[in-house]
Amino acid sequence: MKLRHLDRKDIDQAADLDELIEDMDAFLSLGVRHRMQTPLRTLLSTQSGEGLLVAMPSYSPDLGLFTTKLGTVIKPGGGDKAASVNTLVAAFDAVTGRAIATVDGCGITHLKCAALTAVVTRYCSASDAHSLGVVGAGALACAQIVGIARVRQLSEISVYARSSGSAEMLRRNLAERHNFHTPLSFSGSVEEAVRNKMVVATSTTSRQALIDAGWLVESVHVNCMGARSHETTELDPLALKDSILLVEDVDTAVQEAGPTHRSGIVLEEMMRLRARLPVGRTVFSSSGHGAFDMLATAHVIRRAGLLS
Which fold has domain 115-289? Predict the structure, then answer.
């Protein structure tokens, strides 16, 4: 039997974001991840340092799956051009060992990010939060807007995009792929986009901090899903230090983003605390984690009829 590959169009057709949000909520509430095996990601670099292979394996006895997310990141030599990223997820039946499918990795990433952003925003933002500031206009920005809109009634969405072309592409993707027609306003600066917003979402490749703590209201919730390293973050390091920090996994966050994340609260603990989270600014600093990619992959292949 020929191995099935699900591309982004297949993912869009199969996925039900509202269902996945509730699955992810239950996944965190019930502590399913504690029964999984998800080691730290493996990184292999070319001698020049411009090419990187990333492997994120995971096993779940509850889902009966092995999955591995594989990706390459190719950084162009010199200049400010963005890195080229290509990913896929391979899924295997953990009982029989049968290869079930390969799935477009970027599509899974965007679906996962939409659902996970929704769950975290549901528990960390004010219930009456209606304003959203977005920094970045790529596919992850699109995913975050769609996810947040599932759990909050948004009447104001301000976006900072580096170019009019990326702004128009974001508007078109929201309308055509997600049937999302809430008006967007495009801001001339990052400050204008995020100042005094109740929820903020970032998804850029910036190597410099973009958001100053003074622009944020005290009770804001921030979802950071862009590039980060030990030296860089999208949020002012002082703002990060003074926030209630949420992470998918502490060891992964420290590996990817540095020791500041050692104090992070994992999402299962966030669910346990819920209304007892300390009052103040919350920041979800996402480094990615294979367990959530597996959950999104299982959702897609099940709804595509490849998993019972």
Answer: Rossmann fold (3.40.50)
